[in-house]
Design a protein that fits this description.
The chain is built from two helices and six strands. Strands 1, 2, 3, 4, 5 and 6 form a six-stranded antiparallel β-sheet that branches. By secondary structure, it is α+β, with helices and mostly antiparallel strands. It has one domain. The chain has helices at about 10-20, 80-95, and strands spanning about 1-5, 20-25, 30-35, 45-50, 60-65, 75.
Amino acid sequence: MKFIIKDTEHSFHDIEGLIGYKPIYSEHGDSFGFFRTLKQEDYPRIHLLISMVNGGEYGHQFNLCLENSSDQHDKNYHGSILKEEMNRIKELLMKN
């Protein structure tokens, strides 16, 4: 699930802290990867890629994915959990 927030004031590090995600140390081109677990176990978890729109001038693009297990094919890109997470992220970033 992709969405853009026209937030030009927060860095990737700021966003990570504000929305409660942890970094994933892997290459994603010009995007930075983060995750948040939904339970105390490793899965399910929400994987988030954040990239700048036009060098950050127009904010950030967010790409959410629900990972149900470590299997690369066990992912969801749509659904109520991701819609709720999108709304939670928007609300947190608009408040700060």
